[in-house]
Amino acid sequence: MTPPRRQRRYPQPDPAPQPAREGEGERKNPERLYVVTGPDGERAAIDLVTLIVSRVQDPPPSATPEQAALLRLCSAPLSVAELSAYLNLPFSVVTVLLTEMLTAQLVKARAPIVRQTLPDRSLLEAVMHGLQRL
């Protein structure tokens, strides 16, 4: 059994379509990403966990808006995945932008600090023996 349909006593016209916001059109436009990255599209060996740190305080006047945003974000070390999320750009685009910035020596890339999975056995034995003496 289907529920009854309600009808308005005074029908109203359909609402007018809302104009698209500035950010929405940019995300769906692949040509814009080509303009941001340029025609060469070369990439450095950067992965998602590579940490990026800015070498300069202020972006140079020749920097694009995306590069200036990257430099402002990288005052403290951030991973490429975080930068991609903060700028709402695909990883591949951020990689191309960072490659250009690395060649211009505006940023520095470094591998993340890897912690050992297991502590050193001799250190654990020394702590255990020290606790037993107490």
Average pLDDT metric: 79
Number of strands: 3
Strand-residue proportion: 5-15%
Number of DSSP helices? 6
Poorly predicted ranges:
none
Which SSEs are present, and which pair or pack?
Elements: H1 22-27, H2 30-37, E1 51-54, H3 65-73, E2 78-79, H4 80-87, H5 91-103, E3 107-110, H6 121-133
Antiparallel strand pairs: 1-2, 1-3
Helix pairs in contact: 2-5, 4-5
List the main descriptive attributes of the protein structure presented here.
6 helices; about 5% strand; 3 strands; flat; about 45% helix; three-stranded antiparallel sheet; single chain; about 130 residues
Structure commentary:
- The chain is mainly α and 134 residues long.
- It has helices at residues 22-27, 30-37, 65-73, 80-87, 91-103, 121-133, and strands at residues 51-54, 78-79, 107-110.
- It has a 3-stranded antiparallel sheet.
- Helix 2 (30-37) packs parallel to helix 5 (91-103) and helix 4 packs across helix 5.
- The chain is flat and about 90 Å long.
Compact summary:
With 134 residues, the chain is mainly alpha-helical. It has helices at 22-27, 30-37, 65-73, 80-87, 91-103, 121-133, and strands spanning 51-54, 78-79, 107-110.
